[in-house]
Task: structure prediction
Amino acid sequence: AEAEGSCLVPATRADRAALMRRVRRRRTADEDRIISPAPGIYARWAHWRSLKPPQRALGIIRGLAALHPDWVFCGPSAALVRGISVSWASLRRTHVVCGPRDGKRLAARIVRHQIEPGDVEVVSGVRVTSLARTAFYCMRDASFPDALAVADSVLRLSGMSRGALRRLLRRSFSGHRGIARTLATCDWADPRAENGGESVARAIMIERGVALPAIQVRLADPLEEDGWFRIDFTWLGEDGRPVAGELDGLVKYVDPAFMGGLDLMAVISGERRREARITAYDMRVARFSLGEVENEASFWRWVRLYGIPFGPPPERRHGVPVRALAGGWSPSCGAGEMSLGGWRLEYQVVVA
Result:
């Protein structure tokens, strides 16, 4: 079960009884301790505590899917299975579409939804709601930053354009509560955001009136003929000098999937060389964490320190920022060219 990223579903009643006896033992060494994250599924505590919230949530979903083959997972649970970026807070509960009789035996952290599941698809062996229904039910009640993370990742994973996503959601959910808010969020979506953290950071910038950056700008490595690298966010500073914004996260230093088989020191050394080569373009490198962006005081200190252009916060409609502002200013740097250490770089912001 651990190898498959799932909680254990016991094969026999005897196995379940043995597991429950282990669960009830109060004085057990951590390496021998067994827990039950949801009724009928089990995990070793030593393994469980090593997992991040998304891995735990996915383990519960896969275990429940094996235990209840007729269940359809929806909302953030379906999004997680599909690889859509959702907030960790939304993963504290598991969302399912199941019959009314099942509701009598659901745990407190399993939420039963009485909705039509629509088109059911099987993704990685788990029955989930359609992409459109999953996206809509995740976006309609989420904050703008969390909803934008969903929209960005839907475009990135599906290959759809922003217009195609809008048409799909309008056609499928016209008249539903929250559809206007969901469509307004789609107007800001950009598939180039590589992860949910970048989407959330960009959304906060939009909400506070910071000029919309060019995303994932590709630069040639000035020292290696065929080398290149990407920058998370790029602005033309108020003084005309480009600013490279790099979102720092621990994942690139601790998750093997992001480390390319290198050890920690090699990853750190590579980051230093990369940053040194970015500065060869006469760019200022502005590193920041998601926590620094979310904290308004530290956010504005960072913006002013690096001369990132900004204007008044945009108006909101349905709780979502809009582009039309008094004075004609809008949070976007449009399209154009940057002069980088003798190189000319063309860039374009997808959101007009």
Remarks:
- Residues 250-260, 324-334, 348-352 have pLDDT under 50 and may be disordered.
- DSSP finds 14 helices and 15 strands in the chain.
- The first strand starts at residue 34 and ends at 38.
- Residues 264-279 form the longest helix (16 residues).
